[in-house]
Specification:
Keywords: Coiled coil. With 90 residues, this protein is of the alpha+beta class. Helices cover 38% and strands 33% of the residues.
Amino acid sequence: MIKYEASVSCYATIEKIEVLRETEKCVFIETRYGEDKRLKDNSWRPIFDTWELAHNWIVSKAIEKVESAQKQLSYAEEDYNKAINMEEAK
């Protein structure tokens, strides 16, 4: 059966994987080193039943990154403005 492994570690990817067997929490795949067990609900590389679900997860992670970057930019702008308007203590 086919599953989709998503990742956003370096850049967003979705890899189609052939699953040998599946349990409630794991899938087993064939690798060049033999059979490998992977958790489905892995925070770094979760495994999904469809490409669309994997894509939705990647999009949600990208939105989180953008929101985080916007907050960081806002904090940096506040620090910058405080620094620019800073005066020598009297």
